[in-house]
Amino acid sequence: MPWIQLRVNSTEKQAEQVSDMLMSWGAQAVSFVDAKDTPIYEPLPGEVLYWENTVVVGLFDAEHKMDKVIRQLEKAAIFKNGVQYKLEQLEDKDWEREWMDNFHPIRFGQRLWVCPSWRDIPDPTAVNVMLDPGLAFGTGTHPTTALCMEWLDAQELSQSLVVDFGCGSGILGIAALKLGAKRVVGIDIDPQAIESSLANATRNGVEQQIELYLPKDQPASLQADVVVANILAGPLAELSGIISAYVKPGGLLALSGILESQAQSVIDAYAAEFEFDPVAIKEEWVRLTARKKV
């Protein structure tokens, strides 16, 4: 099906309203693009941030009456000083197939693979996690997830209890179970992540070994052999007391979602209770690993 793309220049305060307008006028999907390449690294839990200069992109069926959409856009009250926009024709492609073609099996360390369901498994004898891209964070393509997966692959997890703090898609907990962990507790602030983790655990046949909780329901006195937390530097530091308490004396901790410039501040938040290993770096992101003092 051919598509038309409408790009509307906006601000962070207007972006959500522009998105709602485009959807109400018939857009099949809406996305947000940074107009000036300004990075946003660290929203607070549950917060959605837009760029100061945000382009709101609406995708319309090519037969949609775009002249009517443009008239409505130009009359919109939020654009007091006029609106800047651009209409673009998109090449007629099988967009679902195009999207699927971008995801391939990925290897982490020596034993561990993440494989989309529509691809052949490269090594049936390896530890294979079957995972399709979804709305919850974590497919293995982001450097922070890859750093955690590589670390898990190198650990002896046999019969261990693992806490996946900020479980997202469940990829880290599922990988831990496939690598020999006995039980995983996953915690996330997003109910959709809990649903995604359960669905992915079921697809991988490990749903009986994983427990999933929103923060209000998370176990209070649990102590695990291994805790992994792939979230962001701010929440990692702010929640250090909660995360640290999940690690038993002598247990292991892996933290990621951290930029190189943020690593020391996160280390400082945990240093009283943990002895840290050398920092692992992938692109601009780091993974911190440590053992809890006895």
From TrEMBL:
Compartments (UniProt record): Cytoplasm
Pfam annotation, one family: PrmA
Main location: cytoplasm
GO CC annotation: cytosol; ribosome
GO biological process: methylation
Record keywords, A-Z: Cytoplasm, Methyltransferase, Ribonucleoprotein, Ribosomal protein, S-adenosyl-L-methionine, Transferase
Protein name (Swiss-Prot/TrEMBL): Ribosomal protein L11 methyltransferase
GO molecular function: protein-lysine N-methyltransferase activity
Family the entry assigns: Belongs to the methyltransferase superfamily. PrmA family.
Species name: Rheinheimera mesophila
Enzyme class, UniProt record, top EC level: transferase
Membrane-spanning residues: none
Binding residues annotated for S-adenosyl-L-methionine, in chain numbering: 145, 166, 188, 230
InterPro entries: Ribosomal_L11_MeTrfase_PrmA, Ribosomal_PrmA_MeTrfase, SAM-dependent_MTases_sf
E.C. number: 2.1.1.-
Reactions performed catalytically: L-lysyl-[protein] + 3 S-adenosyl-L-methionine = N(6),N(6),N(6)-trimethyl-L-lysyl-[protein] + 3 S-adenosyl-L-homocysteine + 3 H(+)
Claim: Ribonucleoprotein is one of the keywords in the record: yes
Function as written in the Swiss-Prot or TrEMBL entry: Methylates ribosomal protein L11.
